[in-house]
From TrEMBL:
UniProt keyword Transmembrane present: yes
Keywords carried by this UniProt record: Membrane, Transmembrane, Transmembrane helix
Taxon lineage: Bacteria, Pseudomonadati, Bacteroidota, Flavobacteriia, Flavobacteriales
Domain of life of the native organism: Bacteria
Parts of the chain that traverse the membrane: 7-25, 31-49, 58-77, 104-121
InterPro entries: DUF2809
Protein name in UniProt: DUF2809 domain-containing protein
Length: 128
């Protein structure tokens, strides 16, 4: 696998990271913290991977969605407790601490949005 740096995706990644940090720092509850944050995190992960891996969008999007689902389902089995990280704030923030079906929907919608945007961009490029 060849790695190739993509500045555009990396800049979008950094912007989304800043938004996620602001959400985590200032919002403790509600739709934006729980649902929008989960929606944005898969887009953030996608942009991070696309910053270095020049693969087709579908492959990276699928990989990100699988990673998000695996982490979410590991919460069912109290992964943080198994790893003895239940009191670690960073681990809770990164891995989450409770399973929610709504999170799975937010991840799916985030990845669907990514694929729609990528498809739209490819259509625009082909017209030029």
């Amino acid at each position: 696998m060849n790695l190739k740096f993509n500045k555009v995706y990396f800049i979008v990644f950094l912007m989304l990271l800043a938004i996620e940090v602001i959400i985590a720092a200032f919002l403790k509850d509600g739709f934006i913290r729980h649902t929008l944050g989960d929606y944005l995190v898969v887009i953030l992960m996608y942009c991070f991977f696309k910053s270095f891996i020049p693969a087709k969008p579908f492959y990276i999007a699928t990989t990100v969605l699988v990673i998000a689902f695996v982490i979410e389902f590991l919460q069912l089995y109290e992964l943080l407790s198994v790893l003895e990280l239940q009191d670690n704030r960073i681990a809770k923030l990164v891995l989450g601490s409770t399973f929610h079906y709504g999170d799975l929907m937010a991840y799916t919608l985030g990845i669907m949005s990514v694929l729609l945007i990528e498809y739209y961009i490819q259509l625009k490029v082909k017209k030029i």
